[in-house]
Amino acid sequence: MKKFRLFTPGPCAVPEEVLVEMARPFRHHRTDWFKGLMKEAAAQLQQVLLTRNDVIIITGSGTAAAEAAIIGCNPAGSKLLTIEGGKFGERWGEIAEQFGLNVVRQPVDWGTAPTPELVADWLKKDPAITAVMLVHSETSTATACDLAAIGKVINSAGKLLLADCITSAGALPLKPDQWGVDVVVTGAQKSLMLPPGLGFLAVSERAWKVIESNKSQHAYYLNLNKARKMAKENDTPFTPAHLLVRGLVKALSVLLEEGMENVWKRVATMAAATRAAGQAIGLKVFSKSPSDSVTALCPPAGITVKDIRNELEKRYGIESAGGQDQLKGKIFRLGHMGYVDEMDTVLAVAALEQVLYKLGHKFELGAGVSAAQKVIAEQVKPAELWTAPALRSQIARRDFVTGVRTRSAAQLLFERVHQYCGCGCAQACAVGSVCWSDRVGPLPSPGKRR
Ligand SMILES: Cc1ncc(COP(=O)(O)O)c(C=O)c1O
Question: Is the CB of 61 under 6 A from ligand 1?
């Protein structure tokens, strides 16, 4: 038997309740039923993205949403700066060029993040720039920038800030209104825990003014004015992927139940654990400014990325990602977005160790798992562990989905609870013991949902 495990940085694993929700019989999209879903999804997106700005839902992937933003926010006579530290930064420059926009494409070394000082300098040198397109978490290099600090620079220079938050929204701390992000662009198939097919934008009033007065928009399908007009009535200008919207409402309710601060903490813990594990077994972390939503590791000398990825998939059903373009063959990437938790990370690290061991890499077997476990144990505070309803529902959900096989993973979580609860039972506690049930109730039996 081989269990399939998705650790790519998109598409990412989707909770089973979201899949089930999308499999249910459905109705037509020009109905009150669908309008109700759109209304709820938009309100939830505002909560997940921590914004009061209008949210637009587009049928299309994240690139569609980004293209809509680039076209809408750059009327004739304006000038766009694209900051390009990887494959996706480059894509935004390519789109702008393709539409004949006035664009300055600023390269950044792959694996490093643009700094606020650099951005200030670029803006100072070219005062004609009216908008900046920046990638918050550059997935191709697993690198994150300080969007808050860069936002300040761009805002005080009076320019529009368009941010590709496709692998940061729902993973890294993101406060667009506070940070002056005029357009947040994101997509469905990463931390928002859906299959691909929806793109999202949160657009500030400042940006709407530019979009509304933009007479040179080259877009029909991706026209944000049309989308906004219809969104005001909880509707869409064209046939939407309405089952994805239905899944979205469910997926966002899972995130909101956990709480965005807790989501960010979980993702940060998984990323820190993976980086520590990689280093403990002699692998270099590629990025100088690592993103928490994805980790890029360099293979050890003499072992290819192709072999590592093939073995991970063949032996353990783990799908990882390789490097793209100039990083092809130089890195492999493990995502921390979507329906994954800390124990999934431990599992991925264990599988990586097994694979590297078999491929002849010399290291102490178990060192990576141990390093990951230490990070997890240290980063999760006692109170968070045994009082958080999120932890409880996480265990319940995991147990429901996978049954007996992952009871050991649930057991590990319990043991961590006991490490901290001070009841004296320590590791000897059995699942469903007095200690556990005192605090958060008994573990549901396999196959039963709490
Ligand atoms: C940072 C970033 N930007 C843009 C994209 C493109 O998004 P999509 O594939 O949804 O069009 C991706 C996809 O991986 C991404 O990670």
Answer: yes
Q: How remote is the CA of residue 62 from the centroid of ligand 1, in Å?
A: 6
Q: How many whole angstroms from 9 Cα to the centroid of ligand 1?
A: 9
User: What is the CB neighbour count within 10 angstroms for residue 446?
Assistant: 14
Is 102 near ligand 1, meaning CB less than 6 Å away? no
Tell me: the pLDDT tens digits for 32-69? 999 999 999 999 999 999 999 999 999 999 999 999 99
Tell me the two tokens of residue 107.
């390269």
pLDDT digits (tens, 9 = 90+) for 213-231: 999 888 999 999 999 999 9
Band (413; pLDDT cuts 50, 70, 90): low
Best mutation site among 57, 88, 110 for ligand 1 pocket (most ligand atoms within 8 Å of CB): 88
Q: What is the rounded average pLDDT for all residues in the chain?
A: 89
> pTM score, two decimals?
0.85
Atom of ligand 1 nearest to the CA of 188: 10
Nearest CA to ligand 1 atom 8: 62
Q: What is the pLDDT at residue 425?
A: 41
Residue 330 pLDDT exceeds 50: yes
CA 208–ligand 1 middle distance (angstroms): 23
Residue 242 pLDDT > 60:
yes
The residue whose CB lies within 8 Å of the most ligand 1 atoms, and thus the one to mutate among 70, 82, 166, is: 166
State whether the beta carbon of 187 lies less than 6 angstroms from ligand 1. Answer: yes
Domains of the chain as residue ranges with CATH: 15-248 (3.40.640.10), 380-450 (no CATH)
